[in-house]
Amino acid sequence: MTHLPAKTGWLWLKEGFALFRKQPVELSTLFISYMFIMIAIGIVPLLGQVAPLILVPVFSMAFLSASAQVRNGERVFPKLLFVPFRSPAIKALLLLGVLQLATGMLALGASVLVDGGVFWKVISGQTGLDPKVVAESNMGLAILAAALVYLPASMAFWYAAPLVAWQKMGVVKAVFYSFFAVQREFRAFLVYGLAWVAVGVILPTVTSLLLALIFNSASMIVMVMMPLSMLLTVVLYSSFYITYTDVFPVPEQEPVKAAGIDIDV
C-alpha cells in the first residue's frame, strides 16, 4: 500500500469546500441545529459541563453521515443528528467520548505543571486573558506541553468513531488503527493541518482585524465572524469525511444504512 502524497492534505481541504458547496444551506442548518442542542444541554447543571464533550464522537458521526449523503446526492435533514443515538455502536461512541475527555484533562494537567494553572484558568473561564499575567507566566510553554501530550491521543481518536460505527471495530482496535493510519499518512496530515491553520486561524484573524480597522464596530465583526466560523466548522467536518474515504475503504452500503438504521425523510 503506497503512501498518499503530501499534497493530498491540501486536496482534502479543497474537496471539503467542494462538498459543502453542494448543500450549503442543508449542512449549515444541520450545524445550527447541533448548536441549539449543545446550548440546551449546557443549561443542565454539572452534566452540561461534560456532556457536550462526551457527545463529540456521537455527533461527529452525524456530520460524517451527512457528508456521505451529500456525496451520494441525497438531501440532508436536521433529524440526521439523532441517528447515531439509535446506532448499535452508541455505547462505544460514548466510551470514546469519555476517553477523549480524560486524555484532554491529562493534557491540561501537563500544562498546569508548566505554568501553575494559568492556561487552565483562562480556558475554563475562571480568569480573563490578562496580557500582564500571560507575559509573567509560562503560558506559551504550557500550551505547547498540552499540545504535545494530546497529539498522540488526537491521532488515536481521529478515525476511531467511524471505525467503530462503520467498520464495527471495538474501541481498542479502532483507536489502534486510527493512530497508525494517521502516523502512516503523516505528511498528508501535516499539510492538512497547516492548511487549516491558514484557513481556520490566520484568515479569520486577518478578517477580524480588517473589519475592526474599517468599521470600528464590534457588532459588525460579530455579524461577519459568526457565519464565517460556522462555515469553516462545517467544511472541517466535510473535509474530515474526505480524509476518511482516502485512508479507509468506504462501507459497501451507505453509512447510515450500514449502521443498521433507516431514515424516513
List keywords for this structure.
globular, 265 residues, mainly alpha, disordered C terminus
Describe the structure.
- With 265 residues, this protein is mainly alpha-helical.
- The protein has one domain (8-258).
- It has 13 helices and no strands.
- Helix 1 (8-22) packs across helix 11, helix 2 packs antiparallel against helix 3 (47-54) and helix 8 packs across helix 10 (171-184).
- The chain is globular, with a radius of gyration of 19 Å.
- The N and C termini lie far apart (40 Å).
- The relative contact order is 0.17.
- Keywords: Membrane, Transmembrane, Transmembrane helix.
- The chain crosses the membrane at residues 92-120, 140-160, 189-215, 221-244.
- It comes from Actimicrobium antarcticum.
- This is Transmembrane protein.
- InterPro entries: BPSS1780-like.
What separation lies between the terminal Cα atoms?
40 Å
Q: C-alpha Rg, in Å? A: 19 Å
Integer count of domains? 1
Range of helix content: over 70%
Could you say which overall geometry the principal axes of the C-alpha atoms support? Answer: globular
- Tell me how many strands there are: 0
How many individual helices? Answer: 13
The helix/strand order is HHHHHHHHHHHHH
The chain-level structural class is mainly alpha
Unreliable stretches: 253-265
- What percentage of the residues does DSSP assign to strands (E)? under 5%
> Main beta sheet, described?
none
